[in-house]
Amino acid sequence: MQSPFQLALATPEILLLILAAVVLLVDAFGKSAQRRATFALTLVSLLVLTLVSLWQWSAGVHGSTFHGLYVVDSLSHLLKIASYIAVALVLVYGRDYAEQHEVLQNGGEFYSLTLLTLLGQMVMISAGNLVTVYLGIELMSFSLYALIALRREQVVATEAAMKYFVLGALGSGMLLYGMSMIYGATGHLDLHQIAQAVSGGGAHRLPLVFGTVFIVAAFAFKMGVVPFHMWVPDVYQGSPTSVTLVLSTTPYLAAFAVILRLLIVGLHGVAADWQPMLLILAVLSLAVGNIVAIAQTNFKRMLAYSMISHMGYVFLGLLSGVVNHHAPAMDKAYGASLFYLLIYVFSTSLTFGLIVILSRKGVECEEIADLRGLNRRNPLLAGALLLSMFSLAGIPPLAGFYAKLSVLQVLVGAGHVAVAVVAVMLSLIGAFFYLRIVKVAYFDEPEGDYVPGTAGAVANGLLSLNGLLLLALGILPGGLMALCIKVVGNSLGF
Question: Nearest 10 degrees: CA dihedral of 378, 382, 385, 391?
Fold first, then answer.
């Protein structure tokens, strides 16, 4: 039986489950078609969760509970707080879109399902056991399947949901098979016990390596890297844009946490087997993502391929850590990868936030051509678009530049100089389609009858803060980078 203190470690998850149920009940008995009470209660829930996690972090709350299934450490606190903030941005940006595009026509499930998606991600972030990893992934995935299909009358949304479901089930099957092989090889499901079995020579090598291969492939599916990327462009384009905003942000934080714990904690002893896999996945993702994005005319599809290339950079940071088991180098490599992912999440939340704001009732802002002359129509939104594109392209002084530079530094430090050169060349290619967006928004003449939507005062304020945050972190990135390195070092025990 768990002590009250051990149960208190899981306070954010327990609280979120209760709050999600309350949001669902309030929505069921609410009579407002706009779901204002549901929206407000959801934001209040995220604020409460943020305060709880901040208090736990500042009080030094850490440890494990449920017999090692659940882990609380600095990494979990940081990623959960980042997830709360990202989800709050998603909901504020997507509020008007959800109302105008009939995402809320059958109820406010958009809000409750988003909270349940967040719950699955929190379980993943704190997973200390293979069973917890799978439970968190499935809770997140099933909520996302329902979110994508919320607009049931739209064939393209239903098609996107089916594609995501089928390929997600395939990824989950590969993950389960890999976990079963690792259990057969080591006799354990707990990540630390797996690490002890591997380092102590008590694991059967052949099934262990095969299990590692299947696990890496499964998470390659979940993160949409090449050659497991086929679902990403179709699902991004077919989903309601407010749901695409959910898909493109917090799930990657949770998947990153699981990859860190699985590969770095549990399977550190077979790094020589999974490092080449990450290298191949990273280079392929950079090549395909940056080159194919050039040919896209749909803004959401272009951002989908952009995401694929950015996950390539995240993988480059992950593969750079295990070099002669030198702890400071490992901290810096995984910290750089974490920093890169955080910057990506807040850059892409700004970008997709602009798309949902520019879409008005009955009209989607999906084509790149829809952005023509945006600076003349709305200079504030055009300025936010410029900041997000420059950050994603890695142009100084935006945060994306320092994020790319930090990954390249650890890559060169690990001896992968040729790979770093290839990454830089492919990033230069990728800068073309980001700069094309800026050119369309600032220098092209408006055409047709399309009139972009506008944002309310709250959304405008958050857009401004989001953009200024990317600028500030580009000029003064040292604080966040030092925090990422410290968190990784403290949590993974180098």
Answer: -150
The pTM (predicted TM-score) of the whole model is 0.93
Task: Tell me phi and psi for residue 277, to 5 degrees.
Answer: -65, -45
Type of residue found at 184: G
Which run of H or of E encompasses 268?
Answer: none
b/e per residue 307-326 (b: at least 16 CB within 10 A):
bbbbbbbbbbbbbbbbbeee
Measured CA to CA, the distance from residue 489 to residue 302 in angstroms comes to: 35
- b (16+ CB within 10 A) / e for 438-458: bebbbebeeeeebebbebeee
Do the bridges between strand 63-65 and strand 70-72 make them parallel or antiparallel, or are there none, so unpaired? antiparallel
Task: Give pLDDT tens digits for 49-98.
Answer: 999 999 999 988 888 888 888 999 999 999 999 999 999 998 888 887 77
The amino acid present at 61, given as its one-letter code, is V
Q: For the chain, percent helix, then strand, then coil, each to nearest 5? A: 75, 5, 20
Tokens, residue 491: 């949590």
